[in-house]
Amino acid sequence: MATTTAKTVKKAAAKTPAKPTTKTVKAAAKTAAKPTAKAVKTAAKTVARPVQSSAKTAGKTAAMTAAIPATLADKPDYWDDALTQLVKRDRILKKIIPRFPDIWLTTRGNPFITLARSICGQQISVKAAESVWQRVLLECGKRPSPASVQQAGLERLRAAGLSGRKAEYILDLSTHFSDKLVQPAKWARMPDEEIIEELTAIRGIGRWTAEMFLIFNLQRPDVLPLDDVGLLNAISLHYFSGEPVSRFEAREVAQGWQPFRTVATWYLWRSLDPVPVEY
Questions:
Q1: Closest listed residue to residue 151, CA positions, set 184, 182, 174, 121
Q2: Prediction pTM value
Q3: What is the Cα 178 distance to its own chain's centre?
Q4: Catalytic residue among 81, 172, 179, 228
């Protein structure tokens, strides 16, 4: 029998994979089960797509979707393109937009609540409007409906902090919805100005409130609310060194933002108040 040399042993060992020990197998299983930071980050950025498969697969997909923040799904499909264009065109927005990398315009998806909140916020600060709205929720439930508003009635709405007139406006709005005097299902297919015309026919809803609805409920990309004090203040601060600006001057500044004036407006709001407004 030939003598086995050290070289032969080394060569044979290289060809024969080492048999994994129980300890090695357990360690590998533990490593595979533990997600890496990169994997977690990638998963957070990816919205799971529904698949047509077995009930087991569908269950896993639903669980994955539920684990992703709802705001990711709410992100308007035009948002990233808008940011690219606005940063190229506008030197002010080029500085403001990068300050808010992980937030964007979101919608509650409920036409009645959006309009009621907009009425609540008329001519008062964002902070004051939020305070009043939270008290309205105590009277009308966490998701106010036309029925719950009507059940609360005028006096309870006023007790929540609404002015008598705003309380009447919200009650009138609830009647329009409950009596089907408005058709929210059609609004998604209508042009902006037609929706504004229909909404402003409701008592207490002016152009500003209708524009807030276009922005926060329908997420229309090119709305410029020239009656909004916050927008005018932001334009004054960033483009006119704090000097007061007219609606005409604001419109001139905004010409370069088309067709994404909603997005530019939203970031200018953020420059004054980092907390996103949601109606």
A1: 174
A2: 0.71
A3: 27
A4: 228
What distance in Å separates the CA atoms of residue 248 and residue 264, rounded to the nearest whole number?
17
Pair 115, 169: CB distance under 8 Å = no
Q: Decide if 228 is catalytic.
A: yes
Residue entry with tokens 């902070």: 127
Report the C-alpha gap between 211 and 205 in whole angstroms.
Answer: 10
Q: What is the pLDDT of residues 157-169, one digit of tens each?
A: 999 999 999 999 9
Nearest-angstrom CA–CA distance, 92 and 136:
38
> What is the DSSP code string of 127-172?
HHHHHHHHHHHHHH-SS--HHHHHHHHHHHHHHTT--HHHHHHHHH
Report pLDDT digits (tens) over 62-117: 333 333 344 455 799 999 999 999 999 999 999 999 999 989 999 877 999 999 99
User: Count of residues for the chain?
Assistant: 279
